[in-house]
Design brief:
Rossmann fold; five-stranded parallel sheet; two-stranded antiparallel ribbon; 9 helices
């Protein structure tokens, strides 16, 4: 056991058992998203490989989506702990857990020319939290995939109510309109746009709009959970 684990022991977010963020018993409750369960990021209906349906595509739409786990049980609790309880290291734990599934590893085989861009927090919220969980996800994903992180590409220019406070899909989509802009002088041609959770896709859609308006040709979304 690491020395810091003795002073600041890890507790399972699922059952409270000491020793790990998710104990072996609770890991059995984790549900990876199977190839047969991939969805179009625009309409939410089944789509092979998570690719956006041709009839859902627009000039600024996300081109596909890779998500690791279903958003419930231990994974949901882990992500919330990372966001609201300052357990920042739990994000890298979730990424490492996803890499145990060969079909999730295989999802990145055709993305080697992409650059990772993290969904940013508004500066005010970043100061409150002290870190951006999407950036932690981006850095951990870079270690696993060998892809490069293209930092400081996006900026969140609106300080908005959290998406979790929105009750409907329409409210979430409206809340995120024109929330991002591109601040980097150069942008990659292909971007893997990462965030911790994909629900309605409102956040990722608006970030994608900003990226493609700045010259990015193709954007694939990526999230720990969906």
């Amino acid at each position: 056991m690491h020395f810091l684990d003795i002073i600041f022991p890890k507790f399972c977010v699922g059952c409270g058992t000491i020793g790990s963020y998710i104990c072996f018993a609770c890991r059995r409750k984790i549900a990876p998203i199977l190839p047969s369960e991939t969805r179009c990021p625009m309409c939410g209906k089944q789509a092979f490989g998570g690719t956006t349906h041709p009839y859902c595509k627009t000039k600024y739409s996300v081109d596909g989506l890779v998500s690791f786990f279903h958003y419930f049980g231990p994974i949901k609790k882990a992500i919330k702990a990372g966001k609201y309880r300052y357990v920042s290291h739990i994000i890298s734990f979730c990424v490492a857990e996803s890499w145990k599934y060969p079909h999730l590893q295989a999802a990145f085989e055709d993305l080697q020319s992409y650059r990772i861009v993290a969904i940013p927090l508004h500066p005010k919220r970043l100061r409150e939290r002290g870190y951006n969980q999407a950036e932690l996800f981006a850095n951990s994903l870079a270690v696993c995939t060998g892809l490069s992180v293209h930092a400081n590409t996006l900026q969140r220019i609106k300080h908005l109510p959290p998406q979790v406070d929105m009750n409907t899909r329409v409210e979430r989509l409206t809340n995120m309109q024109d929330a991002f802009c591109v601040t980097s002088k150069t942008v990659p041609q292909q971007v893997l746009l990462v965030d911790d959770v994909f629900t309605t896709g409102a956040t990722m859609r608006d970030a994608c709009r900003a990226l493609k308006s700045a010259g990015v040709k193709r954007v694939i979304g990526c999230s720990i959970a969906r």
